Amino acid sequence: MTVLHTFAPMAVELPPNIVVSSVESDLADNHVAAPDHVDQERLAAIVAEARSEGIPLSVVVVPGNPWHDSTLRDLATEVGKSTEGTVAVFSDDWIGTHSDSISRVRLEWAEDAGKFKGNHPEVAVRAFVDRLEEPEGMSWTVITVVLLIMTVLAIAGLYVVKARRGQAGESAATTPTGTGATN
């Protein structure tokens, strides 16, 4: 039984003094939930721009930094259960995200751009959105296909070289080297 207990999922831990139902109701009007001291209009403009670019974003700002940054991701996941699209939760220095349309790799890449902006959520949200709007780099599928084709061509080329050497060796062995005639 100890093994089963060891691998049991951990309970969701949310930032202190955050009520999910309050966050969800605050998101309803402009997809932004933030404390009163934060300029919600500027955040709402950034979120509206992201939505016009096809990123269904909702932003939550929590004051300070929680004990552990994973609580922000837990909050984003909880809010994401009732909110379609991408939820990004910002604290002073960290970001937690959840999305039903953007891969975890891409989200974390965008998170890196928005972290450690101090108590400037507008700057952090702008950096996060800008990173999400950047086109994706080379596809791993394309890279894999190109490497596979290059490998097949290299093997085929080596086969041709080996076959020609074999033919050259056979013709040298069957050609008489000396006929005994002199000039």
Automatic annotation (TrEMBL):
Keywords: Membrane, Transmembrane, Transmembrane helix. The chain crosses the membrane at residues 138-161. InterPro entries: Rv1476-like. This is DUF6676 family protein.
